[in-house]
Every structure is written in C-alpha cells, then in structure tokens.
Amino acid sequence: MNSFLTRDILVKWAPLLVLLVLIVFFAAMEPRFFSVRNFARIGISSAPALMVAIGVTFIIIMGSIDLSMEGTVSVCAVLFAFAFLAMGGTLASIAWLALPLALLVGAVIGLINGLIHIRLKIPSFMASLAMGFVGTGFALLLTGGDRIRIEDEAFRALLTTRWFNFPIMVYVALLFTFIAWFIQSRTTLGRNFYAVGGGEELAHASGLNVNRVRVLGFMLAGIFYAVGALLAVGRIGIAETATGNNFMFVAITSVVVGGTALWGGIGGVWNTLIGVLIVNVINNGMVVIGLPGYVQDGVLGALVIIAVVLSTDRKSVSFVK
Amino acid sequence: MDFERIKPHLPWITLLALVALVGISDTNFLRPQNLISMAADIVPLFIMAMGMTFVIYIGGIDLSAQSMANMTTVIATVALASFGIGAALICIAIGAIMGAISGFVTTKLLVPSFVSTLAIGGVVFSIGQWLSGQRALYMDATLRDNAFGWMVGNTAGIPHEIFIGTVLVLAGWFLQTRTTFGRALKAIGAGEPAAAASGINVTRIKIMAFALSGGLAAIAGLLFAVKLSGGSPTIANGFLLPAIVAVLVGGTPLTGGVGGVINTMIGTLIVAVIRSSMLYFEIDATRQQMVFGIILIVAIAATIDRSKLRVVK
To answer: Which residues in chain A are contacts of B59 at CB distance < 8 A?
Structure first.
C-alpha cells in the first residue's frame, strides 16, 4: 500500500471527504440545496446538536460515554424558562441571570452523573442512561407536561436576527466550539482527557487523578448540554419535557460519524463539527430532494455502524460487550 | 449475616416486602382479582424484559427493544389483513432477524452493543414509521378476534396473557438451564475470553442471544398490538426504562453471568407493584419515570460485580 493512503490518514480525512461528497451529491440532485438560505437552515438545525455533541465528545475521548443528554437538556431548558419568566421574562432585565443559571444546572447534573459513575463504580453508559431517565422524569415533574413559551424579543433574536444571512445562534455555537477547542488543546484538563482515553492505567500510574478528570469531564459536558438547551429553546421559543428528545441519537451519531473513536483517545471538537454537519446535511438533503423524513433514522443508524467499524483498530480489540 | 449470601434472595424478599407494605396500607390491593389483573397487565413488559435478560446475561445491552416492539405493532396490524395468524410468525421472524443483525454487528464488526442496538433501533424505528405512514393504525375487529382472540380474554377468571407469560417463562427457563445453549450463555457471561478458549462458539451464541431478545421484543409488541387492537410507531414508548429496571432489580447484573429469566419475572413483578403502589399512595404519574430512573441506579449499583470490571469506563 502506498504511504499516502495509510489507514490512519484515511480515517482522519474520511469524515471531511464524506461531508464534501454529500454536499456535492445533494447539490447535483437539487440545485436549491446549494443556496445560502438552505445553508442557514442547516446551520439552525445544527447549532443545538453541535453543542450537545461537543459535550459528549469530551466524554468519548476519555473512553467513557454519556447518554444523559436528553434528560439534561430538558431539565436545563425547563429550569431556564421558569427562572427567566420569574425574573421578568426579558433579557433587558435581571432575567439574563437565567442564562448562567442554566449552565450551572447543566454542570450540577454533570457532577451528579460523574459522581454516580465514579463513586458507585457503575459503567458510564448505564449510569448516564439512568440519569437521563431521571432528568426527563424531573423535567416532566416540573412542567406537569405543559409547554412554557419564551416570547422575549431579545432572546428570540438568537433565531430572528441575522448577520450575513445566518442567525445569531449559529455564531454562538461557533463561539462555543472555539471555547471547546481551546479547552481541548490548550488546557491541562483537555490534555488529561486524552491521557485518560489513551490508557487509563498509564494515566493513573503517571500520577493523574483519573477520577477527578472524569468528574470534571461530565461537568463540562453538562455545561455544553445546557448551551445546547438554550439554543434549542431559542430556536422554537418553547421549553418542555420534549425539548431534549432525539438528542441522544443525533449526538452519538454525530460524534462517531465525525471520526472520534468510541475507544477513546482519538478525535476531538473539529471531528464533531464535521460529524454534526454530516448528520444535518443528510437530514436536510433528504427532505430537499423529496425523501420522507423518517428515512433519516435508518440511514443514520447504518452510518453509525459503518463509522464505528472504520474507526476500530481490529488488531487491538479482541471482543466487545 | 453476610451480604453476599443474602444477595441472591434479595429480589423475592423485596417483592414480598413491597406487596406486604402496599397491602397493609390498602387491603384492596391484596384482593386476588386485583393481583391477577396487575400481573396480566405487565405481561408485555415482562416478555420484553425476558428477551433483554439474555443479552444482559452475556454482559451486553439491547437498547433497540422498544423500537422493535413499536415496529412490531405496526407490522402485526398491517400483516393481519392478508396473513391472519401468520402475521405472528412474520413479526417474530422480523424481530429475531433484526436482533441477529444487532448481534452480528456487535460480535463480528466489534461495535459495542449499546451503540449497535441504538443504531439498529434507529433503522427499526424508520421501518415502523415507513410502514405505518406515521399514523396510528387499527386492526379489523373480526380479523383480530379470529386470528388472535385467544391471546386476550379469560378462562376460569384468569386472563390469557398470564398463560402466555407462563409458557414463555417456562420455555426461557428450560432454554437457560437445560440446554447447551444455556450453559454456553452462562460461560460467556461468567468470562468471555475463558469461554472462547474452551471452545465455545462465542460469536454464534451471542448472535443467538441478541436474536432471542429481538424475537421476544417482537412478541411483546404483538401482544401489545392485540391488546390495544392496533399499532403505531410510538405506541410502546416508555417501555425501555421499566424493562431494563425489571432485569436489574430481578438480580441479573449488568456484568452478566448470574440471574436469568426467573429473576426477571420477579423483577417485572416488583416493577408492577411499584407502579400500582404509586396509584395507591397517590403519587403523581409524572413522577414515575424519575422514580424508576433512581431505582435503576440503585439496582445497578447493588448488583454489579465489580471484580469483573478492571477499569470502569
């Protein structure tokens, strides 16, 4: 095999290649796909999912998994809405405090998640799945099944005000993507995520407090879920128990399709950006070329399997559970 | 007293304690009629949980069970018109095949089961939506009664669901304790590398376990469709959490190797009692999910075998 096309290079660039091929394909099928208006639409649908997916990226880099996003997003959205309305219901007043409050709620849920995982020694996928159920249940308890409308003009500007044809929420998502990239590559915490994912025993032996890194990772993920929740509320102007629906499938799909390996240690924020775009380009493109919406879950399911297979180094894994 | 020695007996002790507790606060709960109808209502959930048991028993998880049951309600409703009772076979076959695909993806393609079943769940969900046209479908009453009337109804005051559940649990118990397949399952659950080293065809057994889970989820969906006389791609939503809870509170740990279908039967009854006790204690239905989520965490923490997890990821 020639040296330019090793498996590593292929795996590294495959996601971007897939994204470009998809864009060319849909553009060829339907020229309307390739327009600024449609790209703005893809941006809007990607923004909340990107935040949630970036949150879980940190966890997956550590080789763990977090399936609590649906519950966390719902709780953050609902508590934000309650606090926002209670404090005046407009960003021009003291109610802006509801924004940092939502992030705090996300961090606290992440903390609980991490502590359950670490202290009770439960595998993270199950600890977080259970916490997700608790979260959804808690959101349901808070709202009693009602929808809470957020009609504040200043907050809805996330969607309604556009700079260069793209709504503000897209720029907010990009800003937080840069923050995530900074944490990942320029801070000790970020390095430590990779250290834990690359080999936990080695990390532990070299004096790293692995448990602390894990808990911090879950808290960080919680904060990003909260940002995702805020953008999701900004997008439709409603906070409810169902705000978190489907984020689990989309986020995991995006991270994996973007090329972050489930085994940890490989991938990162940019992979996830590509992954989220792949998922949303597929979702949007299928609708644009006239396929029914329900085909998406099936296609994404197949894509996930292909992505995991491609990113798995078969020599290093003997069996999986 | 040594906790490890009581541990295997905890599920049924919990069940009896719960029944006694609810019974004391409201004696109506203990009326045979009430207990029987409670048991009959929980049968679809039990069937799904029983399938899940096989997968958890080998240390995996099946997150597609709920989507599988959803899809089956649709398939059963659609197929009933042209195939009559043959619709049941179609449902079970499709469920088993989709489960086997999950198993194949997990064992051959080395995709962890929570991802592979999530992905196959997505595929199955799409199929359900496509077949149903995203609507709720209804069965023709005469056709339903001719083909599946025997599934519902009463004999000597006992609902037929209970017979179906009993037959399935006996079959599951036989499979688990009296066949080589059951032995192999136990070996894999106890330690996969050792099982492989001793010559067991681990891949085949694991794929069969996933296929069983898919097939049983399909039977659960079928029974559900018959009971409600129709199907929709979202009708069984909310089944996944109680099904996993039933397996774990029954005493089959996430790490596998111990427990089994009888444990899951007890676990399902615990879930049923907790559910109805919420009615008796007038706990709002909106709290159910939260309560079950917390119970799940407690159950996992209490049952999991940490000596098997070198590193808890």
So the answer is: 321
